[in-house]
Amino acid sequence: PMPVANLFPSRWVQRRHKTGFASYAANAVFTWCKTLLTPEGLAHVLAMLCFGVQVVCIDLFLVRYCSWWVLLTLFVDVPLFIHCAWFWRVDNAHRAAPTQWFTYSWIHAAKVVVLFCRVMPRLPSVFSGEAVQIL
């Protein structure tokens, strides 16, 4: 097994001892926010916005036509959102992308299966003249 001292970069251990963890965390958050102003960062913000809107819309629809139990997926959606928001830069995206894609794909697939198998058969028919209002 790897010694505990090798788990953290030496600059992190040195920086933590000199300036404290709070200032290191504040510096990391500031650097993260500064990188969001790049073209890649703006594209990432747009992707995260789309992910958030998708989660909210599907969950609202499923809650209305299925049950409140579908909100249990938020226990995975919220940490996935945080994970995607933090691990997006080039230096660490190659390690985070497989986890994010795997989790997103399975959660989204489960919601789509519930949508098509449990919700769609119960929706009123458009041909019968009934209007469907989502919100």
| Distance from first to last alpha carbon | 54 Å
H-E string? HHHHH
| Strand percentage | under 5%
Overall residue-averaged pLDDT value: 76
Q: What is the number of helices?
A: 5
Q: Which sheet architecture does the biggest sheet show?
A: none
Helical residue percent band? over 70%
Tell me, what's the shape?
Answer: elongated
Account of the protein in words:
The protein is an all-alpha fold and 135 residues long. Helices cover 70% and strands 0% of the residues.
Concise description?
The longest helix has 30 residues, at 90-119.
List keywords for this structure.
mainly alpha, 70% helix, elongated, 135 residues
Layout: helices, strands, pairs:
Blueprint: H1 10-19, H2 21-35, H3 39-65, H4 74-86, H5 90-119
Helix pairs in contact: 1-2, 3-4, 3-5, 4-5
